[in-house]
Amino acid sequence: MFTMESRTKSLCDIALVLFPLIVCGCGDNFSPVVVYRSELNAYSVLFPDDDEIYVRVLSTHMNLADRVDEPVDGAVVHLIAEDGEVTELNETTVTSGSGPVAIYVGRTRISALSSYRLVVEKSGFPELTASTQVLGHAVIQLDQVSQDMMKNFAHSFQDIYYYISFQIRPAWIWATFDLGYSGLNSQGDTVAGGRHIGTYFLPPSGSRITLQFSRETFITAFNQVSAAAAGLEGTHYYATLTTTQIDSAIYKYYSASTGFNVPNTLRQEGVIYSNVSNGMGLFGSASMDSSVFVIQ
Known about the structure:
Elements: E1 2-3, E2 39-46, E3 52-63, E4 66-71, E5 76-81, E6 86-96, E7 99-107, E8 115-121, E9 128-133, E10 138-142, H1 144-151, E11 160-166, E12 172-184, E13 190-202, E14 208-213, H2 215-228, E15 233-246, H3 248-257, E16 279-294
Parallel strand pairs: 1-14, 2-16
Antiparallel strand pairs: 2-3, 3-4, 3-7, 5-6, 5-8, 6-7, 8-9, 10-11, 11-14, 12-13, 12-15, 15-16
């Protein structure tokens, strides 16, 4: 059982567009000519029960002494399910926080616990392939004693315990606990807000883990939320428990490229983690699940 109060950790963006942080190590300063083979890069993360898949494809070449990654158009991209179903992805442009991004998109239902193979073909490059197994959903449970404590904490001295079960044990998880409220103001408009109580950031020790937050931490957060909701009518209070899972490929990739333990790191010299063949990149799986418990 893990017992940690509040260890804040920003959640890495593992959504549809993964901007590669690929860099090369320092070259040999005594060699004016470096032999380098241009290669494809591909980045994609599968989420269980999603209806779309997104793949970013780039090419790598040398510009003077620098490695340059550029978007690739005209590639043939396929996702092949373990039952043999083939989905062809179409080239398009999506908008991200940094502007338009060229990406390949395909529509298919991603099945939890199933294996998939990614194939990228482009004239002038070796065929890039990668495989992954999709993570399952997490089951989040709050025991009855903890639910009763949150509803009547003035007469209970029980800490809050909740349990997370995994269909496939992930490499790493983020587990967050938030307290929220919702009510009507004097104009009849809905007003909502909340407070973050704490975050666990850890590798699960098994297929089921137990997490704990103290009664005192909960009471402090509840009093702050109650003060923020003062003056609202018909106010409801609720706890939201969220678990984000990532597989070993994503964990190794981000550990190598940005460093989970050094959140401000922008790059790391040297070869980073890659789990694709005939190129570089990342093909992995992640999952996010939430449970909401009404307090009053």
